[in-house]
Structures are given as C-alpha cells and as structure tokens.
Amino acid sequence: MTTPPLPATDDDARAALADLAERIARADRQYHDADAPELSDAEYDALVRQNRAIEAAFPQLVRPDSPSLRVGTVPTGHLAKVAHARPMLSLNNGFSDDDIVEFVTSVRRFLRLSDDAVVALTAEPKIDGLSCSLRYEDRRLVRALTRGDGTIGEDVTANVAHVADVPQELPASAPDVFEVRGEIYMAKADFAALNARLLADAVDPAKARQFANPRNAAAGSLRQKDAAVTATRPLRFLAHGWGETSGLPSDTQAGVVAALRDWGFPIAEAFRRCDSVDEALAVYRAIEAARADLPFDIDGVVYKLDRLDWQERLGFVGRAPRWAIAHKFPAERAQTTLREIDIQVGRTGALTPVARLEPVTVGGVVVTNATLHNADEIERLGVRPGDRVVVQRAGDVIPQIVDNLTRDVVRDAWAFPTACPECGSLAERGEGEVVVRCTGGLVCPAQRVERLIHFVSRHAFDIAGLGLVRVEEFFRDGLIASPADIFRLHAHRDVLIARERMSELVVGKLLDAIDARRDIALDRFLFALGIRHVGEVTARDLARRHGSVRGLAAMIRHGLRVRRATVAVLGESERKFVLRRGRALVAAIETPGIGPEVADALLAFFAEQHNRDVVADLLREVRPLDVVHKAVASELTGQTVVFTGKLETLSRDEAKAQADALGARVAGSVSKKTDLVVVGSDAGSKRAKAEELGIRVVDEAGWAAIVAASRATGS
What we know:
By secondary structure, the protein is α+β, with helices and mostly antiparallel strands. The protein has 25 helices and 26 strands.
C-alpha cells in the first residue's frame, strides 16, 4: 500500500504535525459548527491517519493539541449536553497483519507475559455507525447519549425510544446500573429506500435533499430535534461494549457480550472469541470476504483482549485503550483527472494545497477533493492540473493521490505560490520546515477570520450560535474584526435583527450566549488566543501553574525580559545559542511539560505589540477565572515519582500508567524535586541518591499498597 513518505527530520515532522493539527481542527469546525463540511469522511480520516503515522515515527514530537488526543468534537446544536459517566474513547488502528501481531506483542510486553501464554481476543466487525451509550438504572432505560467528544455527549433519549432494537427494560438478572454501548446505524437497503422516498416526496426532484451515505443518514436521523422524525427513519442498534456498571455478568469480554445478547441486544453474528493471533486474523479474512453481503457498512474488524482483569491493568494511552485495536480494510483505488490545485490559508498562515478532482467513486464514496499535503508532496508526485491520477482510500476511508499516470507528458510544472492568495503578502518556508506560510499575520483576512473561528470554537469560548458561517459573514460586513468585538455586538442589535435568517429571537439567544462567556476558565481563555503550539493541554498546564491572569502576566513579563536579554555572544555557534536561549526561556516559563519550542512561541506572541493590544482589549470585556485546585484523594497527586531497578511484578510501562492515573509525574532521574522513589532489584545509584537526599523510598510491595489504597478511596 502506497502512502505519503514520512518526514525525514524532526523539523519536517514538527512542521507537518502543526499543519495537520490546524487542518483537522478546521475540518472539525466546518463539520460540527457550520454543518457545511468541505471534506468527505474519507478525506478527514486521511489527515488523521497521516497524523498518527508521523506521531508513531516521531513520538517525542506529539503535540499537546494533537488530534489523536481528541475523540470527536464537543457537541453543538439543539440537543442537551450531558457528561458521560465514563469516557467513550476511540480506537487505535492497524492496517496490516504485522500491526496486529505487534499489538499482541505489546500486550505481552506490558503485562510481562511469557511467549507461550494464551492471549485470547474477541473479533467483531467494525460497523460504520454513530456511537451511542444507553444507561439503564433499576433495569429501565433512563438516558441515551451520543459519543460527542468522548467526555460530553448529546441527549438522544427520546429519539432512541423509537429504535426497535433498543430494549426499554432489562431482565431481572441485569445489574442495577449498566451502560450498554454500541452503534446506531442504517442498513444498506433501508438507506436506499429512504433516499428514494426523499426523492419521491420532493416538490422539485432536482433540489431533493438526500443523504450521502448510511452513516450520515443514521446520524442525521438520530440527532433530530423532533423525535417524531426519528420515528419515521429505519434506525437499528448493534451492541459491542459497556460503560459504567454496578456489576458485570462475566469476567471476560465474550462473556459480557453473551449476556448482552441474552438481555435482548443485537450482537454481530460474526462475533468470535479467538485463542491466537492466527485465529483472529482468520476471522478478519472471513469478515472481509463476506463484507459486501453484510446488511450494514463496515470498515474493518475490532479486536479486544478477552480477559477483563488484563484490560483493567492495560488501561488507556491518550484517548484509546491499550487492550483493543481496529484492523482496517486495505485501500481501494480509482483513476480520475486532477482539475485544479487550490490553496487554503489556515489560522497560522499555513498554505495548504488541495487537489480538486473530477468526481470518482472509490469504495462506494464519491471523492472530489484530495489533500496534497505540501509543496514537497506536489514535487514528489509531479502533479499538474490536467494530469490523470490514481486516488486511494486507505483503510477504506482515506483519500489521497498515490500516483501520477501522466507525469511524463510534457507540461510546465505547477508552481507553488510565493504570495498569499488571500492578502498578497510574501509566502515563505521557514528554515527546516515543509510548510509555506503567509507572513501577513493579522493583516491577512484568512488568518484573522480563522483566528476568530478558533476563538469561538468548542474548546475555546464555545459561543453557541456563532459558528464558522456567521463569523465569516460578520467579519465580511465589518461587525467584528477582533475577539473583543464579539462582546460588543450588543451595540449592533438592530443591525443584526435586520439581517437575513436572524430574527429578534435568534439575535437575543446569540447575545445571551455571548454574555454567558464573559466569565471564562483561564485555560480556555489561553487556548482561544490561538498561540502557535499552545493547545488545550498546554493551556491547562499554564493555567494550573500560574493560577490567574495576574500570575500569567507576571510570568510573561519576566519571560520577555529574559528573551530580550538572551543574545548571541562572540564565538558562539548558532546551535549553542538556540539551546542556551531555549533553556533560559523554559526556566522563565517555569511550567512542567513545556519545552523550548512552546516557550519561544508563547513569548514570541506576547512580544508583538499588536497581540498585547488585542489581549488587553479582550480583557476589558471578559473575566478569566482564577484556577481553584480541587483536593484529590491520591497522596501522589502533583508529586514526582521515579522508578528504578528491575520491577518483578509489573512492567515499567504499567507502573508509569499507574502513577499517571494517580496524578503523579514520572521522572527519569532523582533530584531535590523528587517526592518518591520506587525501587526494584538492582536499584543502584538512584536509590543511594534518594536516601542521601532524604527522599521517601518504597519497594514494589509498598508501591502496590499505595495504588490499592488510592483506588479504594476512589482516586
């Protein structure tokens, strides 16, 4: 399978990850906020897979705002938002047999299992539907939620009541509390019939609105404001797991799934328990062969570790479980013509080339656009408008151009622009970067609009009713030019009411939503500023460390003094200067987890007077809230732990995962800032240094007691 080449250097990878994070965030906004996606599901997943491939090759460069650390997008719209009792997480993907073998090998390594120990898996089709969680209390259905962003979903209880596959009550054998998780979907035949009905019912068949695919049809039908509309749609449900529960009917994945079937939930007929990787791969082959005959769309097979006690030990990494993986189906290809190459300008000024294609069906999906990544990829493929190209959807979802069939035809090469198509400013590539950026900054309309869209996005100020389309319209019409202008829209109330599609009621709700965000969490405020490299996690770390706007301002003033004072000295190489300045800036920021690149980006932002002016203007309209630290039951929360020596009862990875779950930070060396050292056999010098510094030292049994005590208190 042909895939875009991985970056050759850390700098190239860092730039590529920044570009992908920006493009995926934009796609999220367009899909969820504006309900006007520019990318198909295939194109979107292409970006996600490329991001994960680069992160796997360069794990030290994973960004705090990486798309792989997110699940979906915070829900928006008319449905009530409700927090999941337990997060609904995503799955890591495998695309080859070797990936699945490595998955099982990693399980053995983490759990320290012998090579001959049986690692049983379950295998089942990965249905292409809408994830849904059904909560039963006293065996009655009390709530149904969509996945949302994995933490907060939308309440679709009234709508799910019309899905015949979902039992309203469970038998007496079921626990008092049980959340069943699965997929809401629309069968292929039902999807075709629905589209035919929509066409027949349309007054003007040429303008009939039809669904693009069964998944979109299922999502649109389930998320209706009027449950009566949902009742007319042929939705189905397939169970595959669970969330919060007061008890489990079995100690294995297969056993619980069997219980779900006994309770009346549909389970995939192809579900199997497998005692080996070879057996699991055989199930994959069988499902792949029968794929076309299945009543629903699938894009792979999901494997899960069968033993639940092992699942608990393995836990999660990022937003995915270590004990499960999705084995995606191989790529499908088609030929088409590249009509033109467009350039999109993102929030950070990145110029991203997009291939506009003659529509072509690949694996049942009509593809009209494909990402070209960057100038290097265009040069590698030698593509020009008019070329005949091969389009591939890898893993059944990813669209990309993998070959140029007419590259030998004599024709001028396509030249990557040297000027921004939005503002005409110089577009240039930084040293060591693959991304070409507009240098126009805030004078570039595309960047200003994108910064405003980012400002109101779900993880920033989250202003209901102010999505991509309205931000673009308001900016175009001169109603807003900066973030603070959003909070001054009250002065334009009459103008807003006079606009098309904006009644007095709509405007009132919008202005109320804006006022509701005048008090904002400090980390959301920071993230909303759109500072390069400052994602959600970094913003949260900065907010927790410095506590308030005043604390952040003091840190920034100190950091800017250090930045100005750190100058090159005679005879010093550029590399040594960069390293020395980086260390100085990190020390000035004084926030765990923030390295030189992020520190430099943060201070570079505030070094610009126009950025300081924008922030000062905004602070006259909003009130970032001081961070209040909540007490946590774990005795290790906020402390630094070092593991040393050979651990006998658990792997180093599992030990680190336990520490992370208890709120501790794991360090590799012992210093005065270390709070606890856990020693195995042959601990060596680290133990001696800990004892010399008077740091608490425990053995594996002591560590196990700490973990058990913390779990017992619910930490």
